[in-house]
Design the sequence.
């Protein structure tokens, strides 16, 4: 149908308005039989005030939604660009020093030595990606190539079963030679996590992996704090919805055990885990990786909850409970 014969009309009182003079006769056929008056609008369609107001509100609403979602969209674009850049950097590092990096990880990280060939390739690439994403600051200690590699590997070990493994909120990791004092605390720290970054005593970090079966590992402990910080203490930069949901399931079991520990002097998780629930979580991670058989035997429900939370079972050859894209 030609554009100038389109049948568009509306009613105000007893008057029907149509867009053109040519459409009057066509409009008559559609009208009721009672007395009415037709009036052609030479200037085109005149919208009623209500319709104009609705269009105005729709435009305002659209502008508000654009302004709201534009930063989110832009952030996602930047993250996508960043991730592609990190992937390229990690790939370059991989091809430049695959054999060297593999040997370092195999020497220091028992978890890595137990992985299948396929999982080793994935683990190494994730480690190099994590390393490329962070700034490593050395305080009173000379930087070595193995330091950022091994610290990155510790983070990847914890998050190996998760989709989000970069702990995005933290841009900087600080490395000190040995125990240090922080803030007003009189206690010497082996490591800690704050909004400033992740901190490690390199001496204690290495010692933890040299004695991997004692259930005490500052690297895993602080990365556990960092993972919780990213998911529960930030505005969502790098957080994992699946992890947060499963952490609530983990806590259904964990809280009961934590409360029981307040009444006992001896426990598999140790007295430090009873300090507060954050330490309970971090110590549970240490025991989960370093003493999985004892953990499963003594605390089977908590062990299973940890397996589901991290989507991995250190005692299983399959390792992952479900594919990473479903984690």
Sequence:
């Amino acid at each position: 149908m030609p554009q100038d014969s389109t049948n568009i009309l509306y009613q105000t009182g007893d008057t029907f308005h149509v867009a053109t003079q040519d459409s009057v006769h066509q409009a008559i056929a559609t009208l009721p039989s009672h007395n009415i008056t037709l009036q052609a609008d030479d200037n085109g369609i005149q919208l009623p005030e209500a319709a104009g107001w609705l269009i105005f509100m729709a435009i305002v609403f659209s502008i508000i939604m654009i302004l709201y979602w534009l930063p989110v969209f832009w952030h996602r674009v930047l993250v996508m660009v960043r991730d592609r850049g990190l992937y390229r950097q990690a790939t370059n590092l991989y091809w430049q020093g695959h054999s060297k990096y593999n040997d370092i990880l195999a020497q220091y990280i028992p978890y890595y030595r137990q992985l299948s060939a396929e999982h080793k390739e994935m683990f190494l690439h994730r480690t190099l990606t994590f390393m490329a994403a962070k700034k490593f600051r050395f305080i009173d200690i000379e930087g070595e190539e193995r330091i950022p590699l091994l610290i990155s590997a510790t983070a990847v070990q914890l998050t190996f079963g998760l989709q989000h493994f970069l702990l995005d909120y933290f841009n900087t990791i600080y490395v000190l030679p040995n125990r240090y004092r922080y803030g007003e605390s009189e206690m010497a720290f082996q490591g800690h996590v704050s909004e400033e970054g992740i901190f490690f005593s390199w001496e204690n970090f290495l010692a933890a992996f040299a004695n991997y079966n004692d259930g005490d590992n500052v690297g895993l402990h602080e990365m556990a704090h960092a993972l919780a910080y990213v998911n529960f203490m930030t505005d969502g930069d790098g957080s994992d919805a699946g992890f947060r949901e499963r952490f609530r399931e983990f806590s259904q079991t964990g809280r009961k055990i934590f409360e029981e520990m307040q009444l006992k002097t001896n426990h598999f998780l140790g007295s430090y885990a009873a300090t507060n629930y954050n330490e309970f979580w971090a110590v549970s991670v240490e025991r989960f990786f370093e003493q999985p058989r004892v953990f499963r035997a003594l605390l089977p429900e908590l062990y299973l909850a940890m397996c589901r939370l991290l989507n991995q079972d250190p005692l299983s050859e399959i390792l992952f409970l479900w594919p990473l894209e479903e984690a």
Q: What stands out?
A: The mean pLDDT is 83.
